[in-house]
Design goal:
Order of helices and strands: EHHEHHEHHEE
CATH architecture: 3-Layer(aba) Sandwich
Radius of gyration: 15 Å
Number of domains: 1
CATH class: Alpha Beta
Number of helices: 6
Number of strands: 5
Shape: globular
Strand order of the largest sheet: 3-2-1-4-5
Length: 131
Amino acid sequence: MRTVLLDTNVVSFILKGGPGMDLYTPHLRGCKLALSFMMVAELFQWVEVRKWGSRRTARLRKALEQFIIFPADIESCSHWGTIRAKCHVIGRPISPQDAWIAATARRFKLPLATHNPVDFEFVEDLEIITA
């Protein structure tokens, strides 16, 4: 079974349901769904910024159990450094968060499902899935 790494926007579609999710269902059906530790951190930033209560936060924690979550390691740090440096050199900076997501995909050789492919267009050796 193929594993696909999800960008924050695609996870948002999945967690909220609705038409955005329908765009990605054909691409993700039958796949294991994975997240970078950075994407999970972004979700918990939303929790704090939007002042979610304990019940809603608990529902998020429960929903995250359905995903494989990849941590950072030395190899993913190496990919992150390379991605950030190369994008900087060509004058197309990438945010630290997007670089971590891309580094996770490259480190574990996973395609990345994203609704914002332009954020990753200058990252080499990255398979993008978009709708």
